[in-house]
């Protein structure tokens, strides 16, 4: 060690920190003064310890006094050094212990996962950090929650509903989803081809797990149902299994709703427009007193009450062509609740769910692996080809377009089958890969095929958009930017048989319904043969399908106070059924 601006520390590392330099200088000065004082007193001999200072400079008393002063200064400097946060390279051996000390106060997922449900929540930072800790360069737009902008659908004079032009979000699907892209697969094939999703093993068992095991056993031995006045058997894949599962859901299911999160992204349902499904479910779920519990230790499911629509509304920067701020926000939220509570870590998110009807809902999960792979995602954009929607775990959410939240049943119904004079009808904007082809082959070329880009004013004066749907046998429901379309449920509302054109689309409630009983599903490649396919359907088959549309309608209707078998309960049942199916029986 030598005096100066550079010294050699442990393991040959250089130390050039100002606090370190001051401390070492004071220590050296203290030693020099002490030995100088000792030498004046005759101990030890000059040959044993040469004096670093002139002998006539200090008396013994002065040297000892100075030594005591330097020692006091040294102690003060040491306290200052310990209290000062390190500014050196984190790899420096002197500062590594300080960094570990600072980070040890932050809860991590491994520590949280070791907690039992009875333990208190872990300390955490404010949820406000979720809104402020975005990367530099991202800014949030002013909140529109207090005065929501109208849904894009309301801006079209023909009454059709459309979505805003999205950024380019498409990516190459992961390798494990490649088999969905093989041409010729339909939804019946998918049920046989899909491997069973992997289910994380819970870190500890709960009474709720035992109830799920009981429910699964009961469903597998469901009694045969016949002539149930509330359930029309031809609509269902297996009406006996559905009814038993629904009964068990009503009797057993408990849901815990996370209260963390500030408006408008959390707890702010939007009840109007094409994203109404996620808003109505949020409103009815949070206000439910039958299924919702305050004690999370009793819960079979955990609801993440954020809105994908509000994410887009408040965090997306128009023109940025990226939804990364939305994905970062969602990731931080999951990190927050997994650090604060032990429940996410118990199952790695397998008993958690969220509901998202915005097209971007699936994409906002990609920054959190457990959220993307394990959580039950109820999505309108239920596209198998993109590797996000997991058939057998995730739930296809019906996209419902509501014009009046106060009167959700307004205008429902249509003409009897015998009075429907139009063979097929579609009107809407030309986006996506299917609609331009549909217009190319059938737009204005056949009187039976009423296919329009936008309804011309000369036509809307006589018959508007809704009247066309109520007067048509078949309502064409082609995909738009994504596979889902609000026209499917809208056709059911107006008692028009939906014709669905969207490859790789998992239809809503496919775990329960037999869609061939009340709809027609056509591969995209068969658009040129559309009229031929429809005309080949026998009249008695069409009449049966149209009658089934009327019967299935009640399962797609929102009620301010939910009733049995309505759309709220159907969505919740699909989520419950998915969770029950994750349970492994010995």
Automatic annotation (TrEMBL):
Residues 106-117 have a biased composition (Low complexity). Its main location: Golgi. InterPro entries: Exostosin, Exostosin_GT47. Residues 155-166 have a biased composition (Acidic residues). It is a single-pass type II membrane protein. It comes from Oryza glumipatula. GO terms for molecular function: glycosyltransferase activity. Residues 250-534 form the Exostosin GT47 domain. This is Exostosin GT47 domain-containing protein. One of its GO terms (cellular component) is Golgi membrane. Belongs to the glycosyltransferase 47 family. Residues 106-125, 141-175 are annotated as: Disordered. It is found in: Golgi apparatus membrane. The chain crosses the membrane at residues 63-83. Keywords: Glycosyltransferase, Golgi apparatus, Membrane, Signal-anchor, Transferase, Transmembrane, Transmembrane helix.
